[in-house]
Write a structure and sequence with these properties.
Layout (H helix, E strand, L loop, with lengths): L12 E11 L6 E7 L11 E2 L2 E3 L6 H13 L8 H12 L4 H8 L9 E7 L8 E9 L15 E6 H6 L1 H4 L3 H9 L6 H12 L4 E2 L2 E5 L2 E5 L29 E5 L2 E4 L1
Parallel strand pairs: 1-6, 5-8
Antiparallel strand pairs: 1-2, 1-4, 2-3, 2-7, 5-6, 9-10, 10-11, 11-12
Length: 261
């Protein structure tokens, strides 16, 4: 993090991430795939995040999400078995473009498997900014998520409630923390997909604003009562009654852990 409310805002870079979901073996509850960023990462170091990254060229946001999921977690959103996915990933790590790999294997990405969930824009007080779209996708049958060991260095499958309970140890950044809070009561992957589809009808960017507080600061979400008055920098307010605007409205940093309050 590098917050400075006096810094002229930079233009956010387009990005995408995937909330990868599978049913828990014991009871079918939805588990989410979270993976840790390296300690030396320039952005969100040591934090557990959803697989994702910046857009390349003129990619569609879903294509960015699918490519990053494949590169970072080895999950291919296509009609491919696990052996094919592993082989293509190894060849991709050696430098082969994903489009060429798919064409050579007679495959194509099934981007309809990605259901929009949220759109987060980094506060303008932050030096490194992204306009990141988050999508939900089910883990394809027969495939396994395996981190690349470089951009992601440790992985966990965890329910949203467990992620909330372990948010300090997981170093969850605000978008991930808000996401697991929103998914805490979802009973199964089908309901999670249904929730994502319902949210898509009310899509709106979530742009937190930096707000100075005695002894620290907060990041105010667009429906916070003080978003317009205490917050600084670029803004994209949401009315309190907006379907995405429920629950806690700000994040505060205590030590190295974010709190959603």
């Amino acid at each position: 993090m590098d917050f400075d409310p006096a810094r002229p805002p930079t233009t956010p870079r387009d990005a995408a991430a995937v909330i990868l979901v599978r049913p828990r073996a014991s009871d079918g509850a939805p588990e989410l795939f979270l993976a840790r960023r390296p300690a030396k990462a320039a952005f969100m170091a040591r934090a557990f995040v959803f697989p994702g990254g910046a857009r390349e060229g003129d990619e569609d946001p879903r294509a960015t999400a699918a490519r990053e999921l494949f590169e970072e977690a080895g999950v291919l959103l296509a009609d491919a078995g696990p052996d094919v996915a592993r082989d293509l990933r190894a060849r991709g790590a050696a430098g082969a473009p994903l489009d060429d790999l798919l064409a050579g294997a007679g495959l194509r990405l099934d981007l309809e498997r990605l259901v929009p969930f949220s759109h987060w824009v980094t506060p303008s007080a932050e030096r490194r900014r992204f306009s990141a779209r988050f999508y939900v996708a089910l883990l394809p049958a027969g495939q396994a998520a395996e981190i690349d060991g470089q951009e992601l260095v440790e992985a966990r499958w965890v329910t949203a409630r467990d992620a909330l309970a372990e948010s300090d140890a997981l170093h969850l950044p605000p978008p991930q923390l808000r996401t697991v809070w929103e998914l805490r009561d979802v009973a199964n992957p089908a309901d999670l997909l249904a929730l994502a589809r319902a949210r898509a009808a009310h899509a709106a960017p979530l742009l937190p604003r930096y707000a100075p507080l005695p002894g620290g600061f907060a990041l105010l979400l667009p429906w916070d009562p003080e978003y317009a008055t205490l917050g600084t920098g670029e803004a994209a307010p949401l009315a309190p009654g907006h379907p995405l605007a429920g629950g806690p409205s700000r994040f505060v940093l205590e030590g190295e852990a974010w709190r959603h309050v």
